[in-house]
Each structure stands twice: as C-alpha cells, then as structure tokens.
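Reader question, answered in our methods column.
A reader sent in the components of a multi-part assembly and asked whether the whole thing could be modeled at once rather than chain by chain. We filled in our standard form and ran it. Here is what they sent:
COMPLEX SIZE: two components
ENTRIES:
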Amino acid sequence: MKRSLYLVFFVILVFSGFLIGRLVYLNNVNGDRYAKAVLSQQSYTSSVIKAERGKIYDRNGIILARSEKKYNMVIDPAVILSKDYYVKPTLTALEEIFGYPPEVIRELVDDNPKSSYIVYEKDVPYSKVSAFNSYKSSHKFVVGVWFEEEFERVYPYSTLASHVIGFTTKAGVGSYGLEEYYDEELTGVDGQTGGYYDSELNSTKIIKDAIDGNDLYSTLDYNIQTVVEEKVSDFIENTGCKNIGVIVMDPNSGDILSMASNREYDLNNPRSLDEFYDATELEAMDDQKKLNALYSVWRNFCVSDSYEPGSTFKTITVASALEEDAVLTTDSFTCNGYTEIGGWRIGCNNKNGHGNLSLAQSLMKSCNCALMEIAAKLGPDKFFEYQKRFGFGKKTGIDIVGETTGIVISRDKLNPTELATSSFGTTFNVSMIQMAAAYSSIVNGGTYYTPHLVKEIRTSRGGMVSVSDDTAIRETVSRTTSEFIRNALYMTVESGTATPAKVEGYLIGGKTGTAQKRPRDEKKYVVSFAGFAPVNDLQVLVYIVIDEVYDQALSGSSSPATRMCASIMKEILPYLGVYPDGDIEYTVNLDLLIDDYDEEGDEGNPDVLPDGLDE
Amino acid sequence: MEENSSGRSDKVRIVRSNYDIVLIMLVVLLSVFGLVMIYSISSYNAARYYNNANLYFERQGLFLVIGLVMMLVVSMIDYHIYIRPLKWLFGIRPIWLLYVMCLGLQLYVLLNGYEAGGSSRWIRIGSLGNFQPSELTKICFILLVAYLVQTVPNRINYFYGFIAVSIFMLPLLVLVALQNLSTAIIMAGIMGVICFVAARKKGYFVIVLAMMAVFLVFFAFVADYRASRIESWLHPETVDPGSQITQGLYAIASGGLWGKGLGESIQKLGRINEVHTDMIFTVICEELGIIGAIMVLAVFLMLLWRLLLIAVNAPDMFGGLVATGVLTHIAAQVLLNIAVVTSTIPATGIPFPFISYGGSSLTVLMTEMGIALSVSKYTNRERATDES
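And here is the structure of the entire assembly that came back:
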C-alpha cells in the first residue's frame, strides 16, 4: 500500500511537472502574441455589445447630436480556409448578396491565410446584413463572414452651436463642450457576449445587455442659434473681426438660448482646418502648428476667453453704489473732461466734458468722470465685494468645459487709481458668460442664476435622471435698483450712446462698451453691447463682444455690436412671442434726467487710459 | 495492512499533538490566498453589476468560516463511526444511510433541480444560495469505496473484485454523470486509485486503464455535440474568440515569469466569464506569473504529501484508503483544472480546490480535510498509547 501511494504521488508529480512545462510553453511560444491580444481587445468587438451614446436635444426636442449604428463587414480568411468545402459556398454567398466578384475575395483570402480580422466594407446597409444572415442560416458551409456593430456620432446641423456641443473622438470619448462635460452621462455601459463551457461540456452563450447612455435636453434654441449664427457670419463676411461672441440667454432662469462665435467648425469632421485656412497655408503648417490651430478653433470664446469689459461694466458699478446707498438716483455729477487721481490725469470719453449729469445720464452718456466719482464714494471694500457678488473673478459654474475665471484686481491692490479705472471696466478681465450672468441678475430684479446649457437629463427610455431647477443662487441687488438700471439703460438706447440698438416697436435697454486692448498704443479695441428686451416685461438678454473689428473706420466704435443686437432682437423677439407694438406707452421718470446736458454726443468714443497707467 | 502498522509503531518515539497542524496551516493558507484572489478578481465586476465590490469576498469569507468550523467538528469525530453498525440506527451502518441519501439527492436534482448555468445540479437553500449535491456525493463516494474495499481486501486483488465494487458504485456514478460528467470522471478516478492502492496484485489495472481511455475517447470525440468543442480546443482563437478558454489563455500567456502584480489583471475585467470560479487559475498566472503558479502548485503538493503521510501512517486499512481518496480527489481537481485552463485537454468545468469561489465546493473540501485530520488524530492517539 505504501509503495502504491508513492507511485500515485509520483504520477501526480509527473503531471504537475508537465503542466508547469505547459505554462512555460504558453508564455514562451504565444506570450507576445497573446499579451498583445489582451491589450488590443478594445477592438475585439466579437464579444462586446456597444452601448449607444446618449442624444443631445435642443429645448424644443430637435436632435443636435445622435449616434447611428453602422455595420462593418469582417472577413475571417483563417476560418474560410480551414476546410476546403467552406470556400466555394462562402464566395457564392458573398457574390449573390453583395455582388463581390469571387476572384477578388478569393485573392484576398489567399493573400491573408492566417488573418482573422479584415474589415472588408464599412457601413453595410442593414437590409444586406439581415439578408446575408438569413442566407447563412440555411447554408451551413458559409463561414468566416460577420458584421461588427459600430456607432458613429452624427451631428445633423454640422456646424450649429459647435462650441457648445463639442464632438467625440473615434473611441467615443467626448471632447469639448457638452460632449465632454457630460461624457459620463452620455456614455453607456457596454454589454458583452461570450462562450462559456459548463461542466456538462456544453457551450453556452452568455449575453449581458448594454445600457445605453442618457440623453441631454439642452437649453439651446435651434431657431435662435440659427439666427445668431447667421448674423455672425454676415458680419464676418461684410466687415470682419478677429473674434466675436454672442450669448442669448433667458435672464429669468439662466437658460442659455444661444451661444455662438465665429469659427464654428464642422462637428462631423472636427479635425479639418479647410474652412479656416487655404490649401497653401495648410501645406506650410507642420503638425504642431496644425494642432495649435485646431485648439484655437475648438476653443469656446464665450466661456474660455477673458477681456477687459469696458463701459458695459459701468452698469455694475452704478448698481453696486446705488444698492449700498453710496449714491442716490437724484445725485448729480460734474464732468470737466478729465479727473485727477493718484497723480494721473484720467480722461473722459468726451474730452470737452459732459458738464452736469444725473446718475442715469452717467450711464446714458457713459461718463468716465462720473463713474470714477461714484466708485470713490462706494469705496474699494464694497467695490471688491460687489465684484465677487456679481460672480467676477471666479467660474460661474456653467455646465461646459474650459471656463475661465477671468482676473480681478485683488482687494489689497485696489488703490484709488485702480478703483477709478476699474469703475469703467478697464484693468481687469472678465469672461462673456460672467458678464451675461451678472447683467441678467441686475435687470431681472436682482436674482443671480447660474448660467446653464442643460435643462434635463433623461435615460434612453425617457426616465428622468436630473433637472436643473435649482440655479437661482443669490440676490445681487434689490428690485428698486434693478428697476432704475432697466430704465436708465432704456434711456441709453432711446437717446444715449446706444441708439443703434433701437428696434422699431420694442422697448429695448442696453449698454455699450469699448475697451482698448493691450498694448494700448496699438489702438485695437474690444467693443461690446449688452441688450435686453422688453424693458417692461423682460424676456431675453443678448450680449455681444467683438474683438478687433477689421474695418478701421469702425474699430473704436461700439456701433457694430449695437447694430447686431438690434438685428438679432428684431428676429428673435417675435419668435419668443413678443410682437412689435406701433405706439408704445412707456414713460421713464424724467426726474432722473438733467435738462442741460451737452447735446453734442460722444457716441462711440473709446475709453482711453493715460499712457503707462496700467502697463 | 496490519503488518505495516505494527512495523511502524516502534519507530516513532516523539509524542506529537493530536492534530496535523501542518495540514491545517496549508489548508488555511490556500483558502485565505483564494480569498485574496477572489477579492482581486471579483471586486470590479461585483461593484459594476451588484453595486457591492465586496459581494463575492464576503460570501466566500462566510463559507470559509463555516468550512473551518465543519473541518474542526468533523476532525473530532472518530472516522470509524461512519462504518460501524449503530444501535440507535437499528444496527444500520451510517455509510449506507449516506449512500441512500446521496442517491435521493442526485435523483432529486436530476428531476427538478434549480436551473443555473444551463444545467440543473443545484438545490436552493435559502439565503446561503444554492447547494450542489454532487459535492456531498464525493464524500459519500470516498467513504463507501474505502469501506467496500476494506471489507473484501483479498478480492480486490482480482478483476472481478474491482468489478464488484464498481457495480455497487455504478448507480451513484450514473446519476452524477447524467448531470455533471466531469465530477463523475473524477469520482471514477478516485475509485480506481483507491482500488489500485489497496490491491496487492495490480496487473488487471492495465485493463481498467484501457477501459477508461476508451470511455473518455468515446465521450470526448465521438459524441456529436462535443465535436465542435474539440475544434475549439485545438484552435481556441479562431473558433470562438470570446470563449473563456481563449481569454484564459491570453491571461496566462500575458503574465510572463513574474506576472503583472496582484490586482493588475486586465483579463479579469469582464473578458473571462466565470473568472472567479473555474477560471481563477488563469488570473493567478496573469497577476503572479509562472513563479506564482508554481508556488501555488508547490503548496498543493505539500498538502498532498501530508495526506500521503496520513494515508501511510493510518492505523487501519479503512483510514488509509479514506485518506488516499481525499488525496486523489484534490490532486485530480488541481491537475484537471490546470489542464483545462491551459487548453491541454478539452474544456470542462472543474473548480480549483480551496481557491475557486463556491460555497459547496469549499465546505465539502473542508469536511474532507476534517475526515483526513480525524484519521491522523486517531493514528497519533494510538501511537501515543503504544508508547505509554
């Protein structure tokens, strides 16, 4: 018995040794090949059921992005050649259903006898796929041809709202815009099929179904976005500029209705630069240059770039001072054309001076001297506090990637000169989205809403995942302050610096801005306009920023921005259900105005800082 | 048998503890290692599909505790009790009751077992999950074969003796084979080895081996529905790239000498179906490499060596044959499992002892170890008595 047991143990040892040898053999002979197979299984689609990426809708249910199922035909020569009697039926089947000449397939198979994965045709129509599969089920020697499913991201309006939507990489990962910000929501969970042998030695198919990604219902309005992009491209064609950004938002909820800029790119082909450079330019670029060009094309000007806001910021200074009772609506200010602060002589946009101005007129005439006086009364502590309260110097939290914080002057560096120049929006940087959100809160009665682009997230079957209804985050100013600003900015459009923004039959308010870019001596300007309508029943806010208008005659004037706002308002107000009214009964409290102001307007004159003040 | 035990007792002079501590330590080492591997392998999929990364880990831990308790309890029971006629059982030997019970259970699962994985071989037992009676049947089988052989120690020297034993075991073997062929093959192997060890004339085992070979070839190659499986055994990548054998080979081959490191397996992330049960060895190879695999195998060989010592030192033939059966059972499962995952033999589902996830398998193995420990304890007590 003892000896038999030792013999049994010896046999076990021999088998163990043999199996260890087998392990070593597998590693040595197939190690590299199998290790690579492990790493390359991402494309080993035979066992993966792809999850469908979620759709992106506009606010009215128009599909802005969706995924389409495509079938790719894969030919597996190794299997076809494994038995002589497989070849002919398979070639016949391919000829009968797809019309491929047998000699061509034969040659392909013979040239790659060891291969198991040749993508022979992409995007095979589903009718052909099912025809082939039913043919195959009745011909059992038709082997080695199968179809892998692939989802292709499709953007039906190619360039529409490209900076908002973003695109997806070949691997299905979101890049830029909503696609990247909401990548986790949009991406589903892939399923899997696989063979499994149970102990009864039967092969069982295991299927784990894919879970499709969630759908985004954005706040964008397809029609408004189309109007805005039309106006932008008209301007680019007729006048031209370096950059332009337009934000249309609902000031009563923070919903972004439209966000557009020049350089809208084709989302279906995001890596093409053909639209932006001609062939010879492209030829001259190396890969790094092309990549940098692409980065600048993909960049969302409305949230990722910052600039000095200029006079549009004056509204915020006045609202802050009024809210803190540092000034009263009945106060008056005197402008001599310049103010001396901290040893600097800072000029007004009207060199001759505006004379006596009321608080409302300081906005209507965009008077720098009055604003410097108001900011001085407000004091640096409060000024800094209000900058924060209006959301400057930090991200607004809008649901899109690449938001910038802008740069504000810190409290300890806010000495009288910086306070004075900051009062009319120079020497610090803001982003468009920050300005649009701050303006919305000033004119809507004082509620600051986090600007946002997605209203709802739903599962592919329509179940609610989340709703963005909690975007009102703080109060910035009181109702009375808000009402005063609305009226003052209405007067600015009626008879102040922003008259080109007038639209017949509508009550429109707004404030212009013209800021000189650094270096100051290059005389390049960022012009902007923030407009809202109707003044008595607020529906929409439009904020436009144009960076470096190419037309020299217009370069320092805010009129391109105000005119564009008027043309946008004219088209979108009726769409939003606000129709022009022939005879509008609307009177602003005239106590706010002082009668003897200088009628010699200074519309469009840029704000100019003394040389070297902020260099 | 008798001359062996009397010739041995005067050589041993040291009084050892009642338990084979080394055997217990090896068992604990293997099952705790199994627990670590199960956590490493299953946490990703458990978190993904059940929202609880510890799901499999916790369940296996629970079964390990149950199994250890069972092992200690069983080890305290004199192993002769299974074959002694008991007065309170009306003079019936418990082994026959066990035999009838196993027949009943196998018949029950055959008729209306719970469908899991396509074949019915489970019985639901509440929150503990599903119980697989064929595991319990293995214990019964080992005890019964050992008992039958030791009642007729001389007849087993001849072929008709072996056939007689086989006829007794045939009903159980057939019932198991109808649902779970690989378990039946292992059981047949256990029977063969026990008879082989017991027989003093071994010539007829040539015929037994030949019969088994014919039987295996018939089942593996001739039966039509298995022919395609042979194809996928010979060409795993081309026939079914998604199968767990192919993916398991990728795992083994990508491990290299030292492996990718514990927890670093790529293949476990959903590519190998049932990876935490029958395919667990592939991920051991992927994460710990050939070196790790050899070390696991070495621990098993040490365990088998301890069982061999217990069998050799057993005080009587029954004890020795039971220990032999346990040894054969573990050796067969280890070797066949590795052979399957390395695609050395056609695929079949055999769990890796102590390490694969599975409550029935673990607790039953632990019970078997308890019986082996009982044999070893009995030996030591007798020896101690001899010396005093």
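What stands out: The radius of gyration of chain B is 21 Å. The beta strands of chain B are 114-116, 119-124, 130-131.
Send us your own complexes using the same form.
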